[in-house]
Automatic annotation (TrEMBL):
<comment type="similarity">
    <text>Belongs to the sigma-70 factor family. ECF subfamily.</text>
</comment>
<dbReference type="InterPro" id="IPR013325">
    <property type="entry name" value="RNA_pol_sigma_r2"/>
</dbReference>
<keyword id="KW-0731">Sigma factor</keyword>
<feature type="domain" description="RNA polymerase sigma factor 70 region 4 type 2">
    <location>
        <begin position="120"/>
        <end position="170"/>
    </location>
</feature>
<protein>
    <submittedName>
        <fullName>Sigma-70 family RNA polymerase sigma factor</fullName>
    </submittedName>
</protein>
<dbReference type="InterPro" id="IPR036388">
    <property type="entry name" value="WH-like_DNA-bd_sf"/>
</dbReference>
<feature type="domain" description="RNA polymerase sigma-70 region 2">
    <location>
        <begin position="23"/>
        <end position="88"/>
    </location>
</feature>
<dbReference type="Pfam" id="PF08281">
    <property type="entry name" value="Sigma70_r4_2"/>
</dbReference>
<keyword id="KW-0804">Transcription</keyword>
<dbReference type="InterPro" id="IPR039425">
    <property type="entry name" value="RNA_pol_sigma-70-like"/>
</dbReference>
<dbReference type="Pfam" id="PF04542">
    <property type="entry name" value="Sigma70_r2"/>
</dbReference>
<dbReference type="InterPro" id="IPR013324">
    <property type="entry name" value="RNA_pol_sigma_r3/r4-like"/>
</dbReference>
<keyword id="KW-0805">Transcription regulation</keyword>
<dbReference type="InterPro" id="IPR013249">
    <property type="entry name" value="RNA_pol_sigma70_r4_t2"/>
</dbReference>
<dbReference type="InterPro" id="IPR014284">
    <property type="entry name" value="RNA_pol_sigma-70_dom"/>
</dbReference>
<dbReference type="InterPro" id="IPR007627">
    <property type="entry name" value="RNA_pol_sigma70_r2"/>
</dbReference>
Amino acid sequence: MQNVWDDINLAFRQGDKSAFDALYNQLSDQLITYCKNFVGFEDAQDIAAETFYKLWRTKETWGSISNVKSFLYVSAKNSCLNLLKHQKVKAVNHKNIAALIANEQKAVLLSEIESELISQILVEIESLPANCKAVFKMSYLDGYETNEIAERLNLTTRTVFNLRSIALKAIKTAIFKRGLPINMLALMVEIANRL
């Protein structure tokens, strides 16, 4: 039997297609079964076919049938492992993309809520009495300190604190009357602090 394999191998190395077919018919099912230990049946078939293609491309280099078999199994195993790595990376990438999409959707929703709250806050600021409006804008929109506001408006710091407190309470009450829940009010205060 070994002489038959040696003859087939010699003919294969010389480019005889029928010798290659004999190798393929004898070894392909075994190689597919081996690959199925790592990957699914269709992938195993693809990897086995690709491995035999690599074997054909390097046909001149194979000295013995045992070298051919070793090449087939080692190459197929490496291809299976590469496929598994690729599938793992692909799964991680899909998971990361899904997380990015979810975060983007959440960011868009929060942005819409924030935009609506800012719009409502700005409307309510304009409806405040003149002194409250001036103190609120200088404090939250312009970033002035209490003593700077007091100086500019010729008020005491206590009056500035009171007017700012009245303005915040009026804005919160007006927005609460519009039906916004308490957690939205907390977000509104945070947004107002950022303005």
